[in-house]
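Internal tracking record. Fields below are filled automatically when a chain is submitted to the structure queue. Please do not edit lines marked as system-generated. If the sequence contains nonstandard residues, flag them in the REMARKS field before resubmitting.
Queue: standard
Priority: normal
Entity type: single polypeptide chain
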Amino acid sequence: MSAFLPGRCRPSFGLWCFLNLGLLVFLSAAAAQAGLPLQSSRASPFDLALTGRLAGVPAGETRFARWEDLRALPTSKIKLEGEFLKGEQEVTVVFLSDVLGALPVSQGVDTVLATCTDGYASVYEVSAMEAHRPFVILEINGKGPSEWPPPGIQYNPGPYVVFISPTVAPAVASLLDVGHKRPWGVTTIELANFAEKFAGIQQGRWAGLSATAAQGREIWVHSCTSCHKGPGGSFGGSKSDRPFEVLAAHAGYNQAYFKRYVHDPQAVVPGAKMQGHPHYNHTQLDALIAFITAEQKP
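SYSTEM-GENERATED OUTPUT FOLLOWS
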């Protein structure tokens, strides 16, 4: 999986609050009608772990949703072309918004975080769910995760896959790189508050960023956090073995090396985990460097 992805710009703070308040009211109403049973212990490797801001659940505790209970939620069947197997395949999915709607969501939840078996992570802001329509894949060609990997695929994408597709939401096609919103091997969903989980990239040196650095912060949130933790303990995956301080050193003192690495990591460091991003232009790379080095407003 890749490690950098340009994200979209979030709306203004006032509009952001209004949109999220309205959606949370909707989710709370939906939850009252159709709840997802939560278990206190894992009974199967196909149970989905649920953490974070769950109403009525003590902080720090984990609950589990059984696959069969997720399958009992409203589902859809979607045709995908060449995603897991060559040719067309049919997936049975539940939209992430419907999972949220069936959970006891606490006040302040505006972000969903998905983490995977290999430490990879993905970020889904509630305010963007209507535009991008992320969904959880429960079956591939009629087979659930207990029967994965499906014939013809060399890896097991289970226990869960979260996915976005332009077939479902045309706005997905405008994203520069959708890979970071398509994690497989998902084991855990966390209901979170964005400001809390990403406090480190908005405080201290990162509180007064230049406009260019602020654009780079969006790239960081929707890409680099898949594998890297940010400054000040900001949320990030654990897949990469390069801490933020190492990235900052290269971005600050050897920008040419940093850019070459993002474009083609294996050419710079044979055996590098990160996938190359040759489609990133200099403007995007400059913005990412400006964020990592906390470039300030003039």
